[in-house]
Amino acid sequence: MTRAAQGLRAWLLQRFTALYLAAFLVYAVARLLLTPPAGYDQWLAWMGQPLTGVALTLFVAALALHAWVGIRDVLIDYVHAVWLRLSLMAVVALLLLGSGLWVTRALLLAAMRAAQVGA
Question: CB within 8 A of 118, min separation 6: which ones?
């Protein structure tokens, strides 16, 4: 694969993730404005719904990919020492991966808690 194709892939990935991020944010804000949860149990029920959990997990994944492409491009353009660039990229990748796993864990716990409350 040529470097031009890699740049195009990164550009497309950022555009597609931006579209999903915008669409999900519009949905979430509209949902919260039209029918705000009155309490913890309603909030938990909404977060425990499978469709909401999957959509939010995809949102977090899209956010992580979007951030990765942007930060990677900045590091490639402005950090010229290879060892420093790779070190910073590794730190960013670990932070994004850890954040994604943390959110996924929280959503799974919410789904399990919603199932217990509903039962």
Answer: 45, 48
